[in-house]
C-alpha cells in the first residue's frame, strides 16, 4: 500500500507546516519593507583583517567596493556588517539540503556506517578553509570569489569560472526542489507540482524582497527547525527501538556496523581512505571557494568573525550529518526484516526516511508536520542561497567583470531582481523536465561535481603554487575538467548498461506482511570494465582537483613561470608567506603601519 494512501496530514501537522511558509515570507517582508538600515558613521568604521601582520594590507580599503552603490552592497552583502551566528546558520543551510538529509540516511541503510567518517573529513576541511583560503578573500575584500582569478591570473579565467558556476547552480536547482518535493508528496499526499510551486514562489519572494539579510536570517531559523525535526525523529525513534543496545546489536548482526574498512581498493564504495580523502576534497572544494559560501564570509566585518562562523558551521554540519547517519541505523532497525523497496512500499531510496517517519512516529500529532517543515526549510534555504549568490555573480562577474559594463544603481537592482525571478522559473521548469527524464538527474550530479572540482583546483593553484601562470592554469583547468568528466560520464553510462555490480548490503523480506520475494541478483564480471569507470564516486573529485594542480604547476614551470619577486603576496595563502622572497613585501609593511596608526588616531 502506498504511504500517501495510508496517511494524511492532521490539523496540527498543517499548522506546523504552514508556520514555516508564513515565517519565511514574513522574514522577507520584515527585512525588505519594514526594517530600514540605520546608516551612520559608526556602522561602517574601517576594519582590518584579524590575522598576522603578513596579511594586513592596503588592499583592505582599495578592494572594498560596493557593486556600484551602497544600496546594492547592502542587498547583496549586508554592507559587510552581518552577525556571526546567523551567517553560520546560513552557511549550514547553504550546504545541507533536503538531498543531504534523505541521501545520508539511505546511504547508511544500504551501505553501512563507514560513511559516518565523513564527519571527520568535515572537521578537517573546516581547518583547511579557515587558515588557507578565507584569509586571502578577507584580505582582498572581494565581492565575488571569482574576482580573485582575474587578480591572480586573467579576466578570461575569471569569466570561464563564473560561467561554470552559473551553469553548476542552474543544474543544482532541480536537486533542491525535486527530491524534497518527492519526499513530501510521499508523506503528505500533496500534489508534487503544488509542493514544487510553493517552494519556488515562497523562496523567490523573500529573496527578491529582502536580499541577503532576509536569506541569512531566514536560513538561521530554518536550520534550527531542520535540526529540531531530525533530532525529534532520532529521539523518538530510539525510544521505539527499545534502546541503543538492541539498535547497535541488530545493526552489527545485519552487517551495517562498519568503521574499519581499510581495503586499499579504489573500487570499494566506502573505505576509510575513500571517505576521508574524497570527503575532504569534495567538502573543501565547495566550502573554500564556491560563491555561495564566500559571499557569506564576506558579509562579516573581519577575518576573525569569518573564522568563527566557519567553526560553528563545521561543528554544526558534522553533528547534523552524524545525527542523519544515526537515523539511518534506526531505519535499518525497523526494516531489517522487510526491505521497503523490495516490498513495494517505496519506489526510490530517497523515500526511506519519509516512510520511516510516517510508520514509526507519524501517529504523534505534529511530528510529521515538523519533519515536513524541516525538509521544506532545507529546500527553501538551499534554493534561496543559489538565487542570491547567482544573481551576484551575474552582476559582478558577468556584467561588470566580463562585459566591463558599469550599470547604474537602478539598472543593477533591476538586473539582480530579474535574475532571481528567472532562476526561479528555471527551477520550476527543470522539475517538470526531471519528471519526464529520470536519467538527467545523474547527469546533473556529474556536471556539478566536475564544475566544483575544476574551480577549486584553479583557486588552489593560484593560492598554493606561487609560480603558476595563465597558460598553466588554463591547461590545468581543461585537463582536470576533461578527466573528471570522462570518468564521471563513463561511470554513468556503465551503470546504466548494467556493467557494474551493486555494492548494497544484503536485505531481508522474511517478515513482510505480503508474500514478497527478493529479485535474483545478477553478477557481472567487472574485470571487463575500464578501470576508471569502476572507481568509487569519492575519488572523482580529488582526481579532478589533483589533475588541475599538477598539470597547471608543471606547464607553468615550462612556460615562463610567474616571477616570484614581483608577485603580490596578498594573492598567495598566508601559510606560504614565509616561503616567498622578501622582495614581495617591500613597501607593504610601511603602509600597514600607516593604516594601523590611522585607525588608532595617530598622526
TrEMBL record:
Ranges that cross the membrane: 14-33, 84-103, 115-140, 160-184, 190-209, 221-241, 271-289, 310-332, 367-394, 414-434, 440-465, 477-500, 539-558
Molecular functions per Gene Ontology: symporter activity
Source organism, top-level taxon: Eukaryota
Key words, A-Z: Cell membrane, Ion transport, Membrane, Sodium, Sodium transport, Transmembrane, Transmembrane helix, Transport
Gene3D superfamilies named among the record's database cross-references: Sodium/glucose cotransporter
UniProt cross-references to CDD domains, sorted A to Z: SLC5sbd_NIS-SMVT
Main location: membrane
An individual GO BP term: sodium ion transport
GO cellular component annotations of the record: plasma membrane
Topology with respect to the bilayer: Multi-pass membrane protein
InterPro entries assigned: Na/Glc_symporter_sf, Na/solute_symporter, Sodium:Solute_Symporter_SSF
Keyword Nucleotide-binding: no
Subcellular location: Cell membrane
Family note: Belongs to the sodium:solute symporter (SSF) (TC 2.A.21) family.
Cross-referenced NCBIfam families: sss (TIGR00813)
Name the UniProt record assigns to this protein: Sodium-coupled monocarboxylate transporter 2
Gene field: LOC117566116
Amino acid at each position: 500500500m502506498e504511504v500517501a494512501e495510508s496517511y494524511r496530514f492532521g490539523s496540527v501537522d498543517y499548522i506546523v507546516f504552514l508556520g514555516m511558509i508564513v515565517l519565511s515570507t514574513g522574514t522577507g517582508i520584515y527585512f525588505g519593507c519594514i526594517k530600514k538600515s540605520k546608516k551612520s558613521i559608526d556602522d561602517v568604521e574601517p576594519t582590518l583583517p584579524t590575522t598576522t601582520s603578513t596579511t594586513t594590507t592596503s588592499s583592505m580599503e582599495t578592494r572594498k567596493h560596493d557593486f556600484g552603490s551602497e544600496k546594492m552592497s547592502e542587498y547583496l552583502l549586508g554592507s559587510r556588517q552581518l552577525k556571526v551566528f546567523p551567517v553560520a546558520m546560513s552557511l549550514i543551510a547553504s550546504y545541507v539540503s533536503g538531498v543531504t538529509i534523505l541521501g545520508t540516511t539511505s546511504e547508511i541503510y544500504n551501505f553501512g556506517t563507514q560513511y559516518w567518517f565523513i564527519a571527520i573529513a568535515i572537521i578537517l576541511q573546516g581547518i583547511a578553509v579557515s587558515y588557507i583560503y578565507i584569509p586571502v578573500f578577507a584580505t582582498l575584500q572581494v565581492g565575488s570569489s571569482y574576482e580573485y582569478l582575474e587578480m591572480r591570473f586573467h579576466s578570461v579565467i575569471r569569466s570561464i569560472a563564473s560561467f561554470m558556476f552559473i551553469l553548476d547552480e542552474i543544474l543544482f536547482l532541480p536537486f533542491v526542489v525535486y527530491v524534497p518535493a518527492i519526499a513530501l508528496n510521499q508523506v503528505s499526499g500533496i500534489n508534487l507540482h503544488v509542493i514544487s510551486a510553493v517552494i519556488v514562489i515562497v523562496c523567490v519572494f523573500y529573496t527578491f524582497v529582502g536580499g541577503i539579510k532576509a536569506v541569512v536570517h531566514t536560513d538561521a531559523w530554518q536550520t534550527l527547525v531542520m535540526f529540531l525535526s531530525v533530532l525529534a525523529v532520532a529521539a523518538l525513534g530510539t525510544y521505539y527501538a527499545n534502546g541503543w543496545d538492541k539498535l547497535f546489536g541488530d545493526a552489527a548482526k545485519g552487517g551495517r556496523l562498519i568503521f574499519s574498512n581499510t581495503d586499499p581498493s579504489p573500487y570499494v564504495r566506502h573505505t576509510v581512505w575513500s571517505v576521508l580523502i574524497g570527503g575532504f576534497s569534495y567538502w573543501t572544494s565547495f566550502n573554500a571557494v564556491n560563491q555561495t559560501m564566500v559571499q557569506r564570509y564576506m558579509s562579516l566585518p573581519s577575518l576573525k568573525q569569518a573564522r568563527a562562523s566557519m567553526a560553528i558551521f563545521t561543528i554544526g554540519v558534522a553533528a547534523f550529518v552524524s545525527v542523519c547517519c544515526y537515523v539511518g541505523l534506526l531505519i535499518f532497525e525497523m526494516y531489517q526484516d522487510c526491505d521497503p523497496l523490495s516490498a513495494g512500499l517505496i519506489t526510490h531510496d530517497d523515500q526511506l526516511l519519509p516512510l520511516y517517519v510516517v510508520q514509526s512516529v507519524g501517529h504523534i500529532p505534529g511530528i510529521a508536520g515538523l519533519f515536513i517543515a524541516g525538509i521544506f526549510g532545507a529546500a527553501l534555504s538551499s534554493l534561496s542561497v543559489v538565487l542570491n549568490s547567482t544573481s551576484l555573480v551575474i552582476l559582478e562577474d558577468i556584467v561588470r567583470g566580463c562585459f566591463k559594463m558599469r550599470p547604474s544603481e537602478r539598472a543593477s537592482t533591476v538586473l539582480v531582481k530579474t535574475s532571481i525571478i528567472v532562476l526561479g522559473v528555471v527551477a520550476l521548469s527543470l522539475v517538470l523536465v526531471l519528471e519526464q527524464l529520470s536519467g538527467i538527474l545523474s547527469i546533473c550530479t556529474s556536471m556539478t561535481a566536475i564544475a566544483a572540482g575544476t574551480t577549486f583546483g584553479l583557486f588552489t593553484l593560484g593560492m598554493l603554487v606561487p609560480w603558476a601562470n595563465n597558460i598553466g592554469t588554463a591547461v590545468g583547468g581543461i585537463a582536470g575538467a576533461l578527466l573528471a568528466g570522462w570518468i564521471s560520464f563513463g561511470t554513468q553510462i556503465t551503470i546504466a548498461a548494467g556493467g557494474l555490480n551493486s555494492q548494497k548490503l544484503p536485505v531481508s523480506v522474511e517478515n513482510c506482511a505480503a508474500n514478497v520475494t527478493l529479485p535474483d541478483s545478477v553478477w557481472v564480471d567487472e574485470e571487463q570494465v575500464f578501470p576508471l569507470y569502476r572507481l568509487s564516486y569519492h575519488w572523482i573529485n580529488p582526481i579532478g582537483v589533483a589533475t588541475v594542480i599538477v598539470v597547471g604547476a608543471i606547464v607553468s614551470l615550462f612556460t615562463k613561470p610567474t616571477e616570484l619577486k614581483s608577485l603580490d603576496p596578498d594573492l598567495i595563502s598566508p601559510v606560504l608567506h614565509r616561503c616567498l622572497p622578501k622582495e614581495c613585501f617591500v613597501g607593504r609593511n610601511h603602509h600597514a603601519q600607516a593604516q594601523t596608526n590611522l585607525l588608532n588616531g595617530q598622526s
